[in-house]
């Protein structure tokens, strides 16, 4: 499998990206195309890998920053690591693209340069968050801030197939994010969507509240991109806040430091559960190519895990399956 | 000050409610009207308080349950603790009403039986959540699942005045919940609302993301009721999940138990920060009466603190101030 990686995206680029890519080559045997400033990338490739037949550098002189307007950046910076990487997928030289750069530019670029799977109206950003009982995909977490019932229906199908085919969860439970569990609750969007979701051939469990999600009530949480973004970021933010506050308590005095030392291995195992680097990245589902958005603060391990994720999507033929499932849906899909 | 309390609402009613009410009388010198099943309430009033001139029982034979349709329940159960309590405020026999019962019924009842402050289009449920640097009001957290820009504008005014006049925070920072900090980001609602918020005479800091809220970027987080509900419940849910998982780690073996013992006081202080009972309840702002929704699982301390909150609203003449501020707004308010 051939994977293009935006070597210039994210807070720790290009070093963490290059190191993660090399680890992925060692571990998964994939072929990697590092896209970006050649001179800078080369610095971080160890001598023995410089002429490795599975690591390539594709020179791209421009970088798209987080604060640039996404569509304009994609259109203007034709020689950016983002655009060049996307083109490698479009032209079928690579099977997947991975970036820790601007989420907005990545999404805009995926749509403009690669395009959607036939039948999908809107692609979705679909990160996975830890829960008490395992993990849950939030779909959509920000690609579509104003969504329609038909979008939510497609998100449900894409999310459930991902959890089943890529993550190996049998018959994943799908919930609709809402303000209450009762059928009549919700805003216009959820009220219009629930029947559409119920009619799908999925393990749909109805409305779920945000606190049920962290408890582990479902493996796929379907939502519009605005509230999904709020859900994702408040889980991340609360966990981060609690860890910071705990650390303060643990380092307050000699007694607490000793106590924390005794708890060290347990705390480490626990923190690992809430560590985004374990889950790789968030796929953009619905794009006609394997696209993985890694976290902006990805370290080498996170990049390596994002490569593993791309490989799982590829090995399990996710794109083909989605195409045929959405096709089936289209036949009896009346909005 | 005279406060009516729904003695039958919440998971621990009537015991916790009655005990909390008695504590509040002792501590704040308020006069309490316990509304509900007289026989059941009397069981939990200690002998020395049975003839206390500041504790009264108002008999009400019916109870509204959480699973009842709110409007129908309010209309049909005229002799419920909820409706009788609300009437005490409407008829000016009491200055505030407090309930841990059904949020939906409380809101519907407040609107139908007491009504809005003149000039307010929609009242809001406004709970306070802990942050890294203090606390933040989420307004609205579920009263209006489909909101308009004008509603958000009024939420901002009501929230900022609450934090300033009731919580004593000088010039509270007001943020608009959004998917990104940049001005152009967001859904239709936030894009239409930001200019309206910017024009208010408030310390408006612009868009805020969910993870900024837990970090403590603002004291008032303005949002539609749907995403506010998601924000509130995911903060609660994540904190709960982390505490449960920590507890498992801390009781795993002798070493970890000893470590946890050394950290005991620190952990307790830390957990207190995330304890809803410390903050009392969530006010319904915009109703023409002081309405406090206490948490469904309130214990006696939570009820006592919710009474303190009602007293602060009363002592600081919150309703009068809101009335005049909204009036000012109305003059130059073009939607």
List the helices and strands and how they pair.
The structure is a homodimer of 335-residue chains.
Chain A: E1 2-6, H1 15-28, E2 31-36, H2 38-43, E3 55-59, H3 70-76, H4 81-90, E4 96-99, H5 103-114, E5 124-125, E6 128-131, E7 134-139, H6 149-166, E8 173-177, H7 188-198, E9 203-208, H8 210-215, E10 220-222, H9 225-250, H10 254-262, H11 264-273, E11 281-285, E12 290-294, H12 300-315, H13 318-331
Parallel strand pairs in A: 1-2, 1-4, 2-3, 4-12, 7-10, 8-9, 8-10
Antiparallel strand pairs in A: 5-11, 6-7, 11-12
Helix pairs in contact in A: 1-12, 3-5, 4-5, 6-7, 6-13
Give a short summary of the structure:
The structure is a homodimer of 335-residue chains. By secondary structure, the first copy, chain A, is α/β, with parallel strands linked by helices.
């Amino acid at each position: 499998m051939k994977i293009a990686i935006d070597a210039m995206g994210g807070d720790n680029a290009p070093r963490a990206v290059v190191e993660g890519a090399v680890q992925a080559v060692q571990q998964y045997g994939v072929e990697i195309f590092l896209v970006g400033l050649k001179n800078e990338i080369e610095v971080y490739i160890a001598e023995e890998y410089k002429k490795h037949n599975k690591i390539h550098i594709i020179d791209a002189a421009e970088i798209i920053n987080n604060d640039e307007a996404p569509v304009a950046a994609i259109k203007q910076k034709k020689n950016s690591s983002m655009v060049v990487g996307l083109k490698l997928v479009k032209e079928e030289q690579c099977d997947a693209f991975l970036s820790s750069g601007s989420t907005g530019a990545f999404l805009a670029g995926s749509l403009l340069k690669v395009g959607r799977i036939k039948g999908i109206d809107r692609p979705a950003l679909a990160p996975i968050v830890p829960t008490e009982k395992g993990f849950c995909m939030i779909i959509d977490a920000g690609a579509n801030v104003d969504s329609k019932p038909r979008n939510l229906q497609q998100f449900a199908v894409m999310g459930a197939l991902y959890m089943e085919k890529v993550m190996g969860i049998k018959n994943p439970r799908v919930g609709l994010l809402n303000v209450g569990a009762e059928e009549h609750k919700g805003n216009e969007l959820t009220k219009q969507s629930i029947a559409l979701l119920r009619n799908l051939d999925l393990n749909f469990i109805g409305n779920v509240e945000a606190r049920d999600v962290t408890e582990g009530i479902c493996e796929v949480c379907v939502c519009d991109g605005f509230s999904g973004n709020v859900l994702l970021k408040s889980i991340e933010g609360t966990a981060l806040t609690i860890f910071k506050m705990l650390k303060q308590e643990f380092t307050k005095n000699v007694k607490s430091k000793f106590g924390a030392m005794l708890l060290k291995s347990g705390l480490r195992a626990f923190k690992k559960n809430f560590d985004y680097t374990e889950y790789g990245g968030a796929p953009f589902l619905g794009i006609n190519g394997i696209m993985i958005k890694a976290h902006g603060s990805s370290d080498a391990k996170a990049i390596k895990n994002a490569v593993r994720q791309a490989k799982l999507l590829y090995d399990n033929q996710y794109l083909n399956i989605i195409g045929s499932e959405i096709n089936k849906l289209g036949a009896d899909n009346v909005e």
